[in-house]
Amino acid sequence: MTLNAPDLSGRLELAIAAAREAGWITLEYFRSTDLRVDRKEDDSPVTIADRRAEEHLRHRIAEAFPDDAILGEELPERPGSSPFRWVLDPIDGTKAFIHGVPLYATLVAVQREGESVAGVIHIPALDECVYAAVGQGAWYVHGKTPPQPTKVSQRKTLSQGLFLTSEVLNFDEIDRRDVFDRLQAAARLTRSWGDGYGYFMVATGRAEVMVDPVVEVWDLAALPPIIELAGGAFTDWQGRRTIHSGQAVATNALVHDEVLEIVKG
Fold first, then answer.
1. Roughly what angle, to the nearest 10 degrees, separates helices 5-27 and 48-64?
2. Which of 263, 265, 224 is closest to 244 using CA atoms?
3. Are 63 and 104 in contact (CB under 8 A)?
C-alpha cells in the first residue's frame, strides 16, 4: 500500500488530539455517583459519556476531513468518498468505567481502503497513550512528557509471561473455556486487565499476551498498527491478520506460535 505521508500524518495528529479530548469528556462522568446506565439491544451497557465522547470525535473528524467515512460503536455509520475511514470506540471497557475502574480506553483507528494504517489507545484515567502509524513507528506518552518509542517485551515463553483477557465468561460464550484454562496454566501470571488496556499492556512491554474470544471491529481496528510497529504480532485465533473474525490474539511475537497452538486446539 502506498501512502501519502502528509495525508496520514495529519490524520494521526488529529486522532491523538481528538482521543485525548474525548478522554477528558469521559472523565467528567468517571466515578460519578449518579451516572445513568442504559442497555443496548445486545444488553451491553452504554452511558452518556460514551455518546458524548463519540459525538466529539465525529465532530472533530468531520470538520477536518469531511470526505472520510466514520464507523463508531454508538452512532450510525457515516459514509465517505475518500479512501479513508475512521473507526471509533469512545469507551472500550464501559463495564470497567461504570464501576470506577481506571482501566478503560478511548480507541481511534484510521483505515485506508479497509486496512488499519494508524491507531491510538488512550487511557484517560491514567493519562497514558500509545499510538502508531505506518512509516512512523509506535510511541508511548504519559501526561505531558515527550513521546518515547514503545516496544513489546522480549520474554520468549508464556511460562515467563503475563496473560490478559477482557472477561473470562466470554470463553464460555463460545464454549471454549478450555482455551482460557490452558493459557492460564501455561502463563506465569493471569489477569483480566482487558479491553483496550490489555492491548496497551502488550504494546508497552508490560504483558506478553492478550486474548479475546468475543470482540467487534471497533474494539480491534486501532490495534494492528500499534502492536505490530511495537514489534509484536496481531492475529485472530487461526493466525490470520484480520479484525473481522470476532476473536483476537496480540503478543510480543516471541510467544505467538505458542499461544496459537493453545487457542487453535
1. 150
2. 224
3. no
